[in-house]
Amino acid sequence: MDHRPLGRTGIAVSELTLGAMMLGGAGNPDHDEAVRLVHRALDAGITTIDTADVYSGGESEEIVGRALAGGRRDGVVLATKVGLPFDADPNHRGGSRRWVVQSVEASLRRLRTDWIDLYQVHRLDPATDVDETLGALSDLVAQGKVRAVGASTVPASEIVEAQWTAERRGRERFRTEQPPYSLLVRGVETDVLPTCLRHGMGVLTYSPLAGGWLTGRYRTGQDAPASRRAGRFPARYDLSSPTGRRKLEAADALADLAAEAGLTLVEMAIAFVLRHPAVSTAIIGPRTLEHLESQLTAADVELPEDLLDRIDAVVPPGTTLDPADAMSTSPALTAAARRR
């Protein structure tokens, strides 16, 4: 598998990154099988793994740590995240120095490692000054516990604000961004991806299969497949809603394009994400070995220009069919902030 630069960090990452969100109780609770999945990904040439403290309440990090024990840690670029609510404690979340310092120690223990290659803020905390967060992250880099820092699902304006803050205050800057990006969720092409290019940031995209919509299981005339995501976010999987119907029509058209090109929809979807010049690596999140095998082949796919043009005709550049899939809303647009 080919490798690409992670922005200007000097770190090289595999074109595909193993996302570990589905490892543990939230996806695959069988630890032995999950470890085998990690090992298969490593054997296939994937050298980058992305997890988070909140995935299955730390269970994902524990599985990854177990899988990398015994000498496999040095060959892996290991990324994890902090910031989403870990439990009911109001101080076990966000970007405060108190929580960042506490959380990184717990992640290091669960991952069975002395350092984290990329430590990411899962979401910027509107209740915390970004300088407070960057200051804590800068100390972790100076201490050698973290090699580089990044963020996830941050609007372009806040990416720029964080870059300015780091420059003016002498902090470590966010070196990477992790946005959702897929054939159905192309909004980041408008501003986030160009902003990352301008600032020399690496980009690790997540959800290239649009939360399951691009697996080939969502087709007109078929019942909606049962999934945990649909249970958690029913509005995003309502096939009778206007946005649901638009996504279903697009999924049908894209599946037809893939078949005409001799590809699976999964292969075309992941290959499309990798085609953007800002993208360093695409995070895939398989729950089973079968899922992993179906996604590995995408790294070898080259999409011709005429196929890209036909894709653009189905979902125009910069378009996200369902705004809820963007996963990022300016704090100023939340319901609480709009109250008069």
TrEMBL record:
GO terms for cellular component: cytosol. It comes from Vallicoccus soli. Keywords: Oxidoreductase. SUPFAM superfamilies: NAD(P)-linked oxidoreductase (SSF51430). The keyword Oxidoreductase applies. Gene3D superfamilies: NADP-dependent oxidoreductase domain (3.20.20.100). Residues 319-340 are annotated as: Disordered. This is Aldo/keto reductase. Residues 15-314 form the NADP-dependent oxidoreductase domain. One of its GO terms (molecular function) is oxidoreductase activity.
